[in-house]
Design goal:
single chain, 119 residues, alpha+beta, Alpha-Beta Plaits, four-stranded antiparallel β-sheet, two-stranded antiparallel sheet, 6 strands
Length: 119
């Protein structure tokens, strides 16, 4: 018997708080830590996961690869613009690439933690 309550993303009421995950990249893990600290101190994120990555992409018609960092930001949908503003202020290399995802299922305790953390 499951002990955790799960919330399906479908069938929400308009007043329901919508949790999202934001994926973004930055120059390196030091810059990512700086961004994450600012996001948390300004209460626009509940938590941030940081990963060192190797990114391969097209740039000026050429394929290039660089060491970088990626982040997954846990927040609410109403905070997307504020997250984007912080990322723009602290990203030193380029316009932040921001992709947001709405989770299909969220356990109740995790959702409540996110909600209280960004309140």
């Amino acid at each position: 018997m499951p002990s955790k309550k799960w919330k399906a993303a479908k069938g929400r009421k308009k007043s329901t708080i919508i949790m999202i995950l934001i994926y973004t990249t930055c120059k390196n893990t030091d810059e990512a830590r700086e961004m994450a600290t600012k996001l948390l101190s300004e209460k626009v994120a509940a938590g941030v996961d940081i990963f060192p990555i190797y990114s391969i992409h097209r740039d000026s018609g050429q394929v290039k690869g660089v060491n970088a960092a990626s982040m997954i930001v846990k927040t609410e949908e109403r905070k997307i613009q504020q997250v984007n503003d912080v990322l723009r202020q602290t990203n030193t290399e380029f316009e932040p690439r921001v992709v947001s995802f709405k989770p299909f299922r969220i356990n109740q305790e995790f959702k409540e933690w996110v909600t209280t953390s960004v309140a």
